Every structure is written in structure tokens, then in C-alpha cells.
Amino acid sequence: MRESCRNRRTIRPAKRCAVDQSGEMKTYSAFSLLQNALTRNRNWSPAWQDVEPKRTYDVIVIGGGGHGLATAYYLARNHGINRVAVLEKGWLGGGNTGRNTTIVRSDYLLEENSRLYEFSLKLWEGLSEELNFNVMYSPRGVFRLAHNDAQLCQMAALGNAMSQRGIAAELLTPPQIREIEPALDCSANTRWPVAGGLLQRRGGTVRHDAVAWGYARAADRLGVDIVQNCEVTGIRTTNGRVTGVDTNRGRIDAGNVAIVVAGHTSQVAAMAGIELPIESHLLQAFVTEPVKPVLNTVMIAGAYDGYVSQTDKGEIVMGAELDMYPSYSQRGNLPRIEDIARYTLTLFPSFKRLRMMRCWAGINDMTMDGSPIIGITPVQGLFINGGWCYGGFKSTTGSGYLFADTLANGRPHDILEPFSLERFDSGRYLDEVGTGPIPHLH
Ligand SMILES: Cc1cc2nc3c(=O)[nH]c(=O)nc-3n(C[C@H](O)[C@H](O)[C@H](O)COP(=O)(O)OP(=O)(O)OC[C@H]3O[C@@H](n4cnc5c(N)ncnc54)[C@H](O)[C@@H]3O)c2cc1C
User: Can you tell me the distance from the alpha carbon of 141 to that of 118, in angstroms, rounded to the nearest whole number?
Assistant: First the structure.
């Protein structure tokens, strides 16, 4: 880490993308839907091919979540590099991509975060069209609720910072909020009276599985190999340079390897002898039975750092803080669910009549300053994209786009430069919430 290597060796662009030749994969359209309905679905082709891994690639992406698949897609689409394999130990999107609460927004105070998340949000806006796959981006608005004067001042400062950067935000009074969200208890007698709220109207939700499937289909179409049930068990290096990986399906050589494994970043980086400033914690979420539309926006409550929204199916989705002890179990504890339910009912008393249907947990890699680590590593040709803490889903688009650029050129993209691993040596931390080096508090 201290040597802060600059990986200048660039990857040779492919001469031609597979999409030029294939034409096998059908474009989704109203017409193709009708055609398939009439032919009883006989013409549906798989969204991506199930391939055997080759012996060698230009780039291996470890991890078939949204970030890994987006990286592979943009490598092929923006840089013409399609001798790429995405190696996934389970199934696509089975990690945090399929476990998150689908919230996307770009309401960040620090300039560095703001640039990354706003870049990502702009990509979400056109993603369905770009991928020819409906990712169900729903810009329904994200509210950050303030429950006292101090929080309201923070919201005002955040709103001003956003506005100065050209990112629209509105500070609303309780009656204005209630007009948008009639189910929210805005009375003065509640445990956490609502003092106001900051609304980013372009924020909202995106269907998380569709993001993984859409990127996988589009990457496959550009010639990327997507290999499921392929666990990376070792990273091969020679003289400080990566040469490939060992997997449960054999050895695969590559000049460049990208670690994009969310909750397992420390474990996989350790295969190359890299120790990371990360602690892995559980984060839970749950949904109720589906009901008719009752919530119009996404609500993030400053009182307990919880969030609540309604899916297109009608379920109410809830989440809040970590379970507060490091774990890789992907199963959470009941007390945290009880807390979240109790807090949410304080704000939305009518939800007490709903029954909880499902709960789950994901592993969040929490860094010491609460911001992700993306870029080069001390091992030549080995790149890293992880430590997304609570909020990596919203940056899937931008992270994939900019990380692909970093891989293709062997140096961090300008927007990613502040997110380097090296910042923990130089002390240039990115602590958005200002809680210091206590990972579970970010
Ligand atoms: C409950 C919960 C709610 C969340 N809500 C939000 C939210 O609302 N908004 C938001 O922005 N973020 C949210 N997040 C965070 C977000 O989900 C993640 O930051 C993001 O999805 C990470 O994406 P990824 O592609 O990097 O990881 P993943 O989707 O986890 O993909 C990594 C993949 O790597 C694979 N892998 C691991 N080890 C290996 C190996 N050795 N070999 C091969 N493959 C391997 C895993 O199987 C996994 O599929 C939430 C997280 C959780 C847990």
C-alpha cells in the first residue's frame, strides 16, 4: 500500500465486439413480446450464455454482482475490451445486489462523494434504454427527515451544497411533507416529531435484480464470458504482478484482475497478500405483505437512520442500522428487526396492521471512513472495488463506468482518485458523516 504503485500497463482493446457479428440475441420490444406470446415463448433465447471458462483472458472480474457486471459491460462497451470473464461463486446478483433496499440518490455533502453519486444517478436515468432492459428506475423522490432544529440545519446545509453543484434539492416544512406523504405522522405528540425534510426528487428506487440481469445480458452480448458457480480460491502473482486466479473450476490466467466482491473484499484481497482497513458487518432489511399504494416517496428518518419505501408490488420495505457486530453469516438477529419495526411504526402508525413477510441480511464491508475503496492496489494489474458500506447499490452504474475506465487505462479515473486505497496511508479520509474511524458508525 505504501509503495502506491501506478499501474500504467494498459489493456489491448479488442479489435471487434461480438455484438457486431452475433445478432442472435433478440432486442426486447412490444413487438417481440407479442411475437413470443403468439409463438408460446418458443423464441425466447437465454438472456446470457452459460459458458465454460477459457484458459486465459485480458481481464478477470471476480464477483457477479451489479458492480462486477457493470464493470465488464463498460469495459466492452466503452473500451472495446471483451476478452473479459466475470467469475461468480454463486448466482448473479445473489450477493448484496439482490439483498439491498434499492434506493438511489445523490444527496451527499462532500464534493468527492457528490461527483461520484451524481454521475451514477445520471446514468440510472438512461439505463433501461441503454441496456434494452427495464431496470424500473422510479424517480419517486427521496426524503431525508429532520426531527429537531439541529438536524434541520444539517439538511439546509446539505441542500445548499447540493444546489451549488446544480443538484436540485428542496427543504420542505411538515405540512408540505404531509401533503406528499399523508400516512406520515407529522403531529407534535409523536416520539420524533417531524421538523422538516430535504427532498431530492430525482432520487428513488431501481429494481435491483433487473440491474444485474440487464448488465449481464448486455455484457454477454458484447462478448463477455459470464461464469456462475465459479469461486475464486486464490490470486496468482509473479514478481509483484498478477497473472491469474485459481478457481474451483481450475486455473485461469489474466493480465488484469478486478476484485469486486462486496462483503468478501478483505478475504479475496488477502489472497494477494493485501490487508484492508475494512470490518464486515450484517445489514438487515425486511418487507411486509403487499398493500395498495400508500407511500409515494422513499423516506430516510434522521431519528434512527432508517428508511422505508413501497415496492411496485405493494410491499413496504424497511431497513436501518447494522446489527453492530462483525459477521459473515448473511443472517441477522430478531432484535434489530424489532427495533426497525418499532421505529417505523412511530412514523407510520397505520403500518401496525401489516404482517411481515420476509427478512434477510447482507454483508456490508465497512471502511474506516465510510467511503468505498476503488482503484489500483500495490500488486500490478490487480484492481479493487469494494468497501461500499451501506450504500453501494446507488453507484453501481457510475462505479462500473469509471472502474472500467480505470482498468482500461491502468490509472484511477479522475472522479475515483479520492477513493484510492492509498488515502489510508496519506490521511486524506472521506468521512461523509464525520464519525471518525469507527466503521460500524458510518
Ligand atoms: C440489507 C441491505 C440494504 C441495502 N440497501 C441499499 C440501498 O438502498 N441503496 C444502496 O445504494 N445500497 C444499499 N446497500 C448496499 C448495496 O447492496 C451494496 O453496496 C452493493 O449492492 C454492492 O454491489 P456489488 O456488486 O459490489 O456486490 P454483490 O452484489 O455482493 O456482488 C459481489 C459478488 O461477489 C461474489 N463473490 C464473493 N466472493 C467470491 C469469490 N471468492 N469468487 C467469486 N465470486 C465471489 C458474491 O457471491 C457476490 O455475488 C444495501 C445492502 C444491504 C445488505
Answer: 15
Dihedral over alpha carbons 255, 256, 261, 267 (to 10 degrees)? 60
> What is residue 275's DSSP assignment?
-
Q: Which of 390, 396, 403 to mutate to test the pocket of ligand 1 (most atoms within 8 A of CB)?
A: 390
Residues 165 and 188 grouped into a single domain: yes
89 and 12 share a domain? Answer: yes
Say if residue 288 is in the same domain as residue 299.
yes
Mean pLDDT of 364-381: 97
Q: Tell me the pLDDT band of 17, cut-offs 50, 70 and 90.
A: very low
| pTM for the model | 0.94
What range does the domain containing 58 cover?
Answer: 5-39+49-100+208-276+369-441
If asked whether residues 378 and 422 sit together in one domain, one would say yes
Q: Are 263 and 363 in contact (CB under 8 A)?
A: yes
Same-domain check for residues 339 and 284: yes
> Residue 227 and residue 56: Cα distance in Å, rounded?
13
Q: What is the pLDDT of residues 239-269, one digit of tens each?
A: 999 999 999 999 999 999 999 999 999 999 9
Mean pLDDT of the chain: 93
- Give the distance (Å) from ligand 1 centre to CA of residue 248: 21
Calculate mean pLDDT across residues 56-67: 98
Cβ–ligand 1 contact at 430 (below 6 Å): no
Instruction: Give the nearest ligand 1 atom to 362 CA.
Output: 53
Ligand 1 contact, 66 CB (< 6 A): yes
The rounded Å distance from CA 393 to ligand 1 centre is 8
